[in-house]
């Protein structure tokens, strides 16, 4: 058994995911996209940890690595399972991994493409229970009907197909499916981004109600700062594969200590027609994770950069109670918090 503070449900250490870049006829590896590069953070029971950052900074990759939906390059993921045992998800063999997946689930981004159009709602929600051999026959049907009611769907509709439901209802189906195995921890990856604003609010309320009722912990990934501020207890900010700041939601929004967080908070949200929510657009180019700048990755865009920033990579330093920032000058700069969010 592995050690972890009793106050944690998840403890991610030194997580890395490097995607090889292959070229030529022989598909030689010529470099790596460092999508997640030495990330550490933790989540407490019943807590929502919000993860924010510009597109391509590694949020989805990190979420999937934690569940081993994709295989991380290295790192450890300590997780407290339903029996209270602490397991390193990274070390589990196939059988144990399948068992622990009942406790850790994923809610997908797009309720339109993530549900199989040829399966009934009954079969979609029942699938994780069938795969795990947990329930059969009438018991299975009863459980699915209960899950549908739990997420605010009419259980008489369980023989219908996904196309008969609206976007918000489909996301409820996705949530019911994620809840089927009674997990303790759920990764919500842009779970409301594809929905209309009014529907977003309903789904967020549902996620919060379920959290309270079932004692769930969430890793809530979003590029929408308003949503992140509303739902999270603590927030992590990612930039080019690295976690650059973590703090309680109130502290992060009121007094950020990393210039990248300040830039995110000051950016005007730009409506994204692909997703119904707003997109973060900052001035300057996001660094390329296959060929990041020297020193602090943010230095080419940072208004506070000094010579040291071009050569030395800053480590995480503590700047307050539970507040960490990876900037050489964290705690010394006078940075602006959010206004009007
Ligand atoms: N399978 C893959 N092979 C190679 N590179 C990948 C793969 N998946 C992701 N990447 C790269 O890893 C980086 C991080 O991508 P990721 O999807 O995790 O970002 P994200 O923060 O979730 O972005 P978004 O906000 O757009 O969803 C990007 O540079 C992306 O191009
Ligand atoms: S280390 Fe330097 S470049 Fe990086 S965020 Fe801090 S001030 Fe800016
Ligand atoms: Mg993503």
TrEMBL record:
Domain of life according to the entry: Bacteria
UniProtKB keywords? ATP-binding, Nucleotide-binding, Transport
Show which residues constitute the signal peptide. Answer: none
- Gene3D superfamilies membership: P-loop containing nucleotide triphosphate hydrolases
PROSITE patterns named among the record's database cross-references: ABC_TRANSPORTER_1 (PS00211), ABC_TRANSPORTER_2 (PS50893)
Q: Which Pfam families match?
A: ABC_tran, oligo_HPY
Give GO terms: molecular function aspect only: ATP binding
**Domain ABC transporter, chain residue ranges per copy:** 21-265
Extract the InterPro entries matched here: AAA+_ATPase, ABC_transp_ATP-bind, ABC_transporter-like_ATP-bd, ABC_transporter-like_CS, Oligopep_ABC_C, P-loop_NTPase
What family does the Swiss-Prot or TrEMBL record give for this protein?
Answer: Belongs to the ABC transporter superfamily.
State the name under which the record lists this protein: Peptide ABC transporter ATP-binding protein
Which species does this protein come from? Gordoniibacillus kamchatkensis
Lineage here is: Bacteria, Bacillati, Bacillota, Bacilli, Bacillales
């Amino acid at each position: 058994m592995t050690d972890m503070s009793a106050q944690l449900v998840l403890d991610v250490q030194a997580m890395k995911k490097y995607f090889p870049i292959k070229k030529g006829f022989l598909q030689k590896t010529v470099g790596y996209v460092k999508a997640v590069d030495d990330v550490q953070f933790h989540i407490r029971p019943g807590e929502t940890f919000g993860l924010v950052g510009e597109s391509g900074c590694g949020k989805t990759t990190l979420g999937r690595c934690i569940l081993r939906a994709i295989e991380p390059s290295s790192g450890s993921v300590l997780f407290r399972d339903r029996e209270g045992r602490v397991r390193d998800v990274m070390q589990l063999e196939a059988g144990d991994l399948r068992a622990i997946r009942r406790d850790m689930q994923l809610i997908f981004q797009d309720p339109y493409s993530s549900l199989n159009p040829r399966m009934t709602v009954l079969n979609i929600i029942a699938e994780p229970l069938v795969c795990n051999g947990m329930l059969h026959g009438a018991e299975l049907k009863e459980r699915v009907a209960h899950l549908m009611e739990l997420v605010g769907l009419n259980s008489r509709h369980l023989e219908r197909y996904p196309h008969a439901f609206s976007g918000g209802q489909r996301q409820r189906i996705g949530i019911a499916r994620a809840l089927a195995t009674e997990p303790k921890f759920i990764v919500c990856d842009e779970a409301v981004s594809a929905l209309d604003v009014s529907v977003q609010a309903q789904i967020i309320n549902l996620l919060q109600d379920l959290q309270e009722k079932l004692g769930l912990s969430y890793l809530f990934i979003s590029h929408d700062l308003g949503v992140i501020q509303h739902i999270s207890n603590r927030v992590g900010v990612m930039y080019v594969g690295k976690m650059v700041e973590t703090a309680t939601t109130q502290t992060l929004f009121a007094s950020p200590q990393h210039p990248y967080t300040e830039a995110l908070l000051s950016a005007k949200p730009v409506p994204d027609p692909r997703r119904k929510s707003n997109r973060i657009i900052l001035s300057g180019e996001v660094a390329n994770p296959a060929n990041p700048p020297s020193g602090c990755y943010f230095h080419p865009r940072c208004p506070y950069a000094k010579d040291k920033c071009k050569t030395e990579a800053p480590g995480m330093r503590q700047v307050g109670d539970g507040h960490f920032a990876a900037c050489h000058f964290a705690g010394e700069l006078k940075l602006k918090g959010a206004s009007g969010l």
